[in-house]
Every structure is written in C-alpha cells, then in structure tokens.
Amino acid sequence: MVVWTDQERGAITSIMGGLIYEEDGPKALCRCLIVYPWTQRYFGAFGNLYNAEAIKNNPQIAAHGIKILRGLDRALKNMDNIKQTYTELSILHSEKLHVDPDNFKLLADCLTIVIAAKLGNSFNPEIQAAWQKFLSVVVSALGKQYH
Ligand code: HNI
C-alpha cells in the first residue's frame, strides 16, 4: 500500500492540473520516440515516423500522447489503488502490445522533462520528489502483469 502525504497529493494534483493534455501529451510521446528511437517499433501502424519533424507532425502520435495523459489521470483519480486500476492496462501492454516494460520509465522521464521545461524553478526538488514517486508507482503498476 503506497502512502501519500497531503503535500505529495497536492503537488501531483497541481502538476497534472496544470498540464495541457493536447500539448504536453504529444510533446512527451514525441520526445520519447525521438530520443529513444527503438520505441517507434510499437507504432508501426501510426504512419510516418521517418524523422523528428514527421513524428512531431503525426496526428496519430499526437492523439496517442493525449490518451497516455488521460491514462495517467486515471492513476491520479485512484492514488490509493493505482496497481488495481492499471491491471487491464498492464495486461494490454504486456500480452497484446508486448511493450518492453523498460520503456515505461523512458516515457515517464520524457514527460518529467516536458513538465520541468514548462514549470521551470517552480518544479523544485520537493515537488519533483512527489512527482517521481507518482511516476514510479505508475511504472511499477504498468509492469505488474508482466510474467
Ligand atoms: Ni501505452 C495504448 C497508457 C506507456 C505503447 N497506452 C495505451 C492506452 C493507454 C496507454 C491509456 C490505450 C489503451 C486502450 O486503448 O484501451 N501507455 C500508457 C501509459 C504509459 C504508457 C499511462 C506510461 C506512463 N505505451 C507506453 C509506452 C509504449 C506504449 C512506453 C511504447 C514505447 N500504448 C502503446 C501502444 C498502444 C498503447 C502501441 C496501443 C496504441 C493503439 O491504439 O494501437
């Protein structure tokens, strides 16, 4: 059972509440696909990923970036039950999509970089500590159904 302090809950809620899903979701996913090109292998059906510009202008990738933030929102709304909340999502990524679970951390880190760039100095170490704890619980939950 993960225990969250009021400060952690407040920090995480404030970060998620400040995101513009239509902008920040695509930015994080595009960053992951550009910085870690092997992650593109899971998006073969998403059209043109030939270079950074193509990725950044790919509407299917943008739509999926938004979907990912909506998925994070579900974890935010179930902070005390993220593992159970993500059971089906973990099974999907494991058994249907065969996503290497190491990639969850890479995408999470890309989202953190997008947030740090957006928030600047207000993304201080205490705030980041709460945010990284949230993402580590999310990443762990997404990996739970891998065998
Ligand atoms: Ni992920 C589908 C959430 C990381 C590749 N992913 C989803 C869906 C959600 C989601 C929500 C849609 C499920 C549905 O349609 O029912 N993915 C998340 C979250 C993370 C994550 C919250 C991590 C924070 N996904 C990743 C990573 C990869 C990934 C790291 C690959 C590098 N995800 C996919 C693919 C799909 C997907 C591929 C299916 C897309 C499609 O529609 O075909």
| CATH structural architecture | Orthogonal Bundle
Ligand kinds:
protoporphyrin IX containing NI(II)
The backbone outline, from C-alpha atoms, is: globular
The radius of gyration over CA amounts to: 15 Å
Pattern of helices and strands = HHHHHHHH
Q: Overall pLDDT, averaged?
A: 97
Describe the structure.
The structure is a single chain. The protein has a single domain (about 5-145), classed as Orthogonal Bundle (Globin-like), CATH 1.10.490. The mean pLDDT is about 95. Helix content is about 70%, strand content about 0%. The chain has eight helices and no strands. The longest helix is centred in the middle third of the chain and has 19 residues, at about 60-75. The radius of gyration is 15 Å and the shape is globular. With about 150 residues, it is an all-alpha fold. It has helices at about 5-20, 20-35, 50-55, 60-75, 80-85, 85-95, 100-120, 125-140. The structure holds protoporphyrin IX containing NI(II). Protoporphyrin IX containing NI(II) binds near residues 39, 42, 71 and 108.
SSE map:
Layout: H1 6-18, H2 21-35, H3 52-56, H4 59-77, H5 82-85, H6 87-96, H7 102-119, H8 125-142
Helix pairs in contact: 1-8, 2-4, 2-7, 7-8
The structure holds protoporphyrin IX containing NI(II).
The site of protoporphyrin IX containing NI(II) (HNI) has 19 residues, from α4, α6, α7 and α8.
